[in-house]
């Protein structure tokens, strides 16, 4: 599934966004302003297709809790709007990653001539190394 289509699968009314206080050093507004964003997205209750839900749960991402809720905390920016946008972008990227199906690798055999070239190269290297030994008088 293309990434643009996967991103459009996310309905913003299924996402719960809460403003929280950011961690770390602050300034005069550190105890007054809640600029960080806590995003929660319940995979099971969402309107995503079942195969994408299953792949999301299989990702093994630490942001996905045991009960299937994605929890993303964004506090990179100083404004609430930019942190909200950043958290939604991370969620969209996670959904796009789950929607992408990698192509299966087809096993191939090396050709007979490539096998012969490999063995010939090994024999040649062995001969060069044998010449590095002690000289007998």
What is the fold's blueprint, element by element?
Elements: H1 3-7, E1 15-20, E2 36-42, H2 50-58, E3 69-74, H3 80-99, H4 112-130
Antiparallel strand pairs: 1-2, 2-3
Protein described:
The chain contains 4 helices and 3 strands; from the N terminus they run αββαβαα. By secondary structure, the chain is an alpha+beta fold. It has one domain: Double Stranded RNA Binding Domain, CATH 3.30.160.20. It has a 3-stranded antiparallel beta sheet, covered by helices on one side. Helix 2 packs across helix 3. It is elongated.
Number of helices: 4
Low-confidence stretches: none
Quick one: CATH class?
A: Alpha Beta
| Run of helices and strands | HEEHEHH
- CATH level 3 topology: Double Stranded RNA Binding Domain
Principal-axes geometry comes out as elongated
Please count the beta strands (DSSP E, at least 2 residues each).
3
Percent helix, as a range, is: 25-40%
> Please, what is the average pLDDT?
83
Physical arrangement of strands within the biggest beta sheet = 1-2-3
